[in-house]
């Protein structure tokens, strides 16, 4: 195993795909196909995460601090800061297009990116939001956004939520090879049942040059726009709970479920189901 070869392979992949970064699960799968690093069947991405924890890829970082998900940018783009937060400001306002299509290389500016994500999100906003889920951020690979209909891989958050709420539809979705019509039916049911999802950060973490706490004022304003006094709020991912739980309560939002739910990826799927279903029960959904 050559660390230099692994870094070069991932750098070349990011350049070819036009992406800003990649997560360990997807990266490890690509590395296994190339013969550079065998993946784990039980815990996808674990061999690469072990290397990341040892500092073998020093340009990778955990935006939410220790215990949060890893982001692997191009090796020349960013070095790890002592706090595990990215500190180098972005030198460009272009990112990969948000259209969920394969092999699309067009770029949009940050303002356009936010508009595209918000347009997809608002398409499935319920008339009355009964249950508000708050995740960490849109994925670095923008074609995996929760509210896009055409997502073909690594849609961990959507799959985790769908399994807890609509297990039969989720099974049908996977068995079909992620048919977009089935995902559409799941999103419409999600909407009809009063569920809505916001992100603590408006932008993917690879484009955020501040800590998550800086996003709280914007999040609080958005919550007040979509929620009412009866809306139950569920925080997804430990970093979101640690950053937002007390802050939201201090701003008068009282219907927040006190549950530190892990993200349903990188081996956390089973625990997510347990904790998320507990939160749903506390929210009087189950």
TrEMBL record:
Region entry Disordered: which residue ranges? 57-85
The superkingdom of the source organism is Bacteria
State what protein this is by name.
HTH HARE-type domain-containing protein
Q: What organism, scientifically named, is this protein from?
A: Flavihumibacter fluminis
């Amino acid at each position: 195993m050559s660390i230099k070869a692994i870094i070069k392979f991932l750098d070349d992949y990011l350049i070819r795909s036009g992406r800003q970064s990649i997560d360990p699960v997807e990266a490890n799968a690509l590395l296994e196909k190339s013969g550079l690093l065998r993946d784990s069947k039980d815990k996808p991405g674990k061999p690469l995460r072990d290397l990341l924890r040892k500092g073998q890829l020093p340009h990778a970082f955990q935006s939410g601090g220790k215990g949060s998900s890893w982001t692997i940018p191009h090796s020349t783009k960013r070095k790890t800061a002592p706090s595990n937060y990215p500190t180098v400001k972005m030198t460009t306002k272009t990112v990969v297009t948000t259209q969920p299509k394969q092999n699309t290389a067009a770029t949009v500016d940050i303002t356009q990116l936010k508009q595209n994500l918000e347009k997809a999100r608002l398409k499935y906003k319920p008339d009355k939001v009964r249950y508000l889920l708050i995740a960490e951020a849109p994925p670095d690979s923008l074609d995996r956004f929760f509210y896009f209909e055409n997502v073909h891989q690594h849609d961990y958050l959507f799959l985790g939520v769908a399994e807890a709420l609509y297990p039969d539809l989720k099974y049908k979705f996977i068995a079909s090879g992620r048919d977009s019509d089935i995902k559409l039916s799941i999103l419409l049911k999600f909407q009809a049942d009063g569920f809505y999802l916001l992100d603590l950060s408006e932008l993917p973490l690879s484009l955020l040059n501040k800590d998550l706490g800086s996003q709280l004022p914007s999040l609080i304003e958005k919550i007040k726009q979509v929620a009412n006094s009866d809306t139950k709020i569920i925080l997804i991912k430990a970093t979101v709970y640690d950053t937002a739980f007390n802050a939201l309560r201090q701003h008068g939002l009282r219907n927040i479920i006190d549950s530190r739910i892990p993200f349903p990826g990188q081996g956390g799927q089973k625990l997510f189901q347990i904790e998320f279903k507990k939160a749903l029960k506390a929210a009087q959904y189950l």
